[in-house]
Specification:
heterodimer, A: 148 residues, alpha+beta, Jelly Rolls, five-stranded antiparallel sheet, 1 helix, 22% helix, elongated, B: 310 residues, mainly alpha, two-stranded antiparallel sheet, 11 helices
């Protein structure tokens, strides 16, 4: 009977991990990531997920002429480097952070409104660790009015 | 009550928690799989089959619509003026009793709130924050807009930066609440409500004598053709939800009109200013919309929005 309890407790903890992780991710995005957007104003949208090293994500969004934008890719400290690219709808690369020392911030504006794709990938850890690292990754957008 | 019975009840309770966790975990995985299937809609962006295959391997896909705050900023940047008569009166809050109407009007009131605050309309800002609060409460969004938020807003009513930050935080609280509670459909409806409100305000602010070839507000309205495909992809993710299906019908009506609008863009060239480190995405766009199509769009947006505000 004691063994059954132990197994059930382990399974219970495992089953509750996703809820805990989502809540942690929101708190992380609010308390840590949002600050990095200053002096831009966070648009308020919440785009965050738990990613494991080697996993990727894509975000589709229209960006408008006349606005100044900041993209900030925010990842938990435990995660390895995050690669991110900004692509047009034909997947031509407009920005690649690997050419900018894995910078997590990109400021830009547009002459004409465009739909763009933000593509990111959590790199694999270097070394021979057998454990895969997971963590929260948030894609944050800041906006700023064009100065007159 | 004997010990055996207590054990059995404890085991039953634990088994229920595990079953719930496993079921919701599976549902979450299923959603991710469904994201991939829904990528067919990206076809409308003229992306080739190979590209769709590439995207199918992506772990997470996000479709991001302009938030109410961004919509208001786009309007202001395009030269919009403030007209309170265009906003959904806050007295209407009592009309919204279903989840669908509360979600739509949470988006609508948040757009109105952002629009009012960007034009320094202090009393309207407080009124619309209270209206949005009522919608959020009705939807069970705990702490998205609590008394503390209203008090902070009132204390900083003349500080636009703080107000923007408060609005941004309330939008994030709502969207993350829906995400955490697996209520993606409502989150999408909120965003579509806000998007339609932005279109309604914009189409009603364009003067009758506006120059169709040189009007920033008309250009931003035309740009919504680009956003439309994201709206549809987002709605597709919750297409089994009845309320989403109803909203999708409206969006498809708008799509039929936007199909008469032409947008062609040249290749984008990124140019970075070394001093500011800001990149400009240079491109030239040709857009074409006839006055008749514009009027058709304006009328359709008006009808849809009237149905939303009841």
């Amino acid at each position: 009977m004691k063994k059954i309890y132990q197994i059930l407790i382990v399974l219970t903890v495992l089953a509750l991990i996703p809820f805990y992780s989502n809540s942690q991710c929101k708190s992380f995005a609010k308390k840590v990531c949002k600050l990095e957007l200053t002096p831009y104003i966070h648009d308020g949208n919440y785009n965050a997920a738990i990613l494991t090293e080697g996993e990727d994500a894509e975000l589709y969004k229209t960006f408008y002429a006349g606005q100044n934008y900041r993209i900030y890719i925010c990842g938990s400290d435990a995660l390895p480097e995050i690669e991110f690219q900004v692509l047009d709808v034909n997947r031509n690369v407009l920005y690649d952070n690997r050419k900018n020392d894995y910078s997590r911030v990109w400021d830009f504006k547009l002459q004409a409104s465009q739909q763009l794709i933000i593509s990111l990938r959590v790199k694999n850890s270097e070394g021979e660790s057998e454990e895969l690292v997971s963590g929260c990754v948030a894609i944050m957008f800041g906006i700023k009015e064009e100065a007159d | 009550m004997n010990i055996k019975l207590l054990h059995r009840r404890a085991l039953y309770f634990l088994a229920c928690i595990i079953a719930f966790g496993i079921i919701t975990g599976c549902a979450s995985d299923k959603k991710k799989g469904k994201d991939s299937d829904d990528l067919v809609t990206i076809d409308s962006l003229e992306i080739d089959e190979q590209l769709i295959q590439d995207v199918k391997t992506v772990k997470e896909i996000f479709y991001s619509l302009p938030s109410p705050l961004e919509t208001a900023m786009i309007l202001k940047q395009a030269g919009a003026k403030y007209n309170e008569e265009l906003l959904n009166p806050t007295d209407n809050v009592s009309r919204y009793v279903t989840n669908k109407s509360m979600a739509l009007n949470l988006g609508i009131y948040t757009t109105d709130l952002s629009y009012a605050s960007l034009f320094d309309q202090t009393q309207a800002t407080i009124n619309y924050m209270n209206a949005a609060k009522k919608m959020a409460e009705g939807l069970g969004i705990l702490n998205a807009i609590d008394e503390d938020v209203i008090e902070r807003l009132e204390a900083n009513i003349n500080n636009r930066d703080v107000i923007m930050d408060i609005i941004s935080e309330t939008i994030m609280n709502s969207s993350s609440f829906f995400e955490e509670n697996d209520r993606q459909a409502l989150s999408t409806i909120v965003l579509v409500g806000g998007w339609v409100e932005g279109l309604y305000i914009a189409t009603n602010l364009v003067g009758a004598d506006a120059d169709f070839n040189n009007n920033e507000l008309i250009n931003r309205i035309i740009d919504q053709k680009l956003t439309l495909s994201t709206v549809i992809s987002l709605l597709d993710e919750s297409s089994d939800n009845e309320d989403v299906q109803a909203v999708m019908t409206n969006v498809n009506e708008l799509k039929a009109i936007f199909e008469k609008v032409e947008i062609t863009t040249s290749k984008i060239e990124p140019v970075t200013d070394e001093e500011t480190n800001i990149t400009t995405l240079k491109s030239e766009t040709t857009i074409s919309m006839s006055p008749a199509t514009y009027n058709e769009l304006k009328e359709k947006v008006k009808v849809i929005r009237s149905n939303y505000i009841l």
